[in-house]
Amino acid sequence: MSTAISTQQLAMSGEVRANALMPTSIHEAIQLSEIMAKANLVPEHLRGKSGDCLLIVMQAQRWGMDAVSVAQCTSVVHGKLCYEGKLVAAALYAMGAIEGRLEYDIRGEGQSSTITVIGTPRGATGPQSVTGNVKDWRTFAKDKNGNQVDNAWDKSPHDMLVYRGTRQWARRYAPEALLGVYTPDEIEPAADVRVVATVSHGESSPGAYPKDQFDTNLPTWTGLIKAGKRTADQIIAMVESKGSLTDEQKKLIRASESATATEVAA
To answer: Between residues 45 and 199, which one has the greater pLDDT?
Structure first.
């Protein structure tokens, strides 16, 4: 049979797949990459380059995704094949590396925006979080004359925080999803070389969360819990990414959840 991947053959095998074009052998993967390289509608950096297409086919297979769709979300930055930030979240969900979905708490506007990404890694006992901001995470773009120009961080800072925050979370808590994978902002010049993501649980912990801020924010957190928008554990994980809480402070946060459960039971 001369066709690269026969859908009839897949159907006869009795194997159920969400993606009928997912190769089952290196031979099929090579054939698919050769077909992709000949297509006019794949990104320009992949046309006529079956070897590069093969890299994408193999990565898509690890993620359980369609290789053609993944190819549309790639680019080449400084000689490295890069994947768009939105693919990172898709990979986490496709691989089952996370319980439920990631949540994003964005504060501020424009270049003063900050984000906390919260999620529960598969097999973990509770949610984990990372925190960052535009100032420390953004990258810069230059024109052919070396002059700095606006990029996505200037036009859509909240979207970029979500993409970067998702990748930062995945690198820490689901590294198996991103082995050998780079996003463009990891290759482009960054605003700072510091690692600014903080971890809610780890060998090193942040300082104590300021008591005055705790007293000010507690009513807001209580409201989120009572509205069902956050659980007590999620609030605690988010706060402890910025500073550690005392046992008494955790009890105050959890008391809101207990009170809500009692009201529902009544």
So the answer is: 45
d(CA 133, CA 108): 10
pLDDT band at 260 (very low <50, low <70, confident <90, very high): low
pLDDT in the model for residue 121: 92
Task: Give the helix/strand (H/E) hosting 133.
Answer: strand 128-133
User: How far is 222 from 252, CA to CA, in rounded Å?
Assistant: 9
Q: Tell me if residue 228 falls in helix, strand or coil.
A: coil
Beta-bridge partners for 105: 116
User: Residue 42: inside a domain, yes or no?
Assistant: yes
Residue span of the structural domain in which 40 resides: 17-72
**The whole model's pTM is what?**
0.60
How many domains are there within the chain?
Answer: 3
The alpha carbon of residue 153 and the mean position of all alpha carbons in its chain are separated, in whole angstroms, by 17
User: Which of 121, 106, 247 has the alpha carbon at shortest distance from 165?
Assistant: 106
The reply to whether 100 and 168 lie within a common domain is yes
206 within a domain of the structure (yes/no) = no
DSSP code per residue over 54-113:
HHHHHHHHHHT--HHHHHTTEEEETTEEEE-HHHHHHHHHHHT-EEEEEEEEEESSGGG-
φ/ψ of 63, rounded to 5, equals -85, -15
Q: Report if residue 49 sits inside a domain.
A: yes
Phi, psi of 248 (to 5 degrees): -65, -40
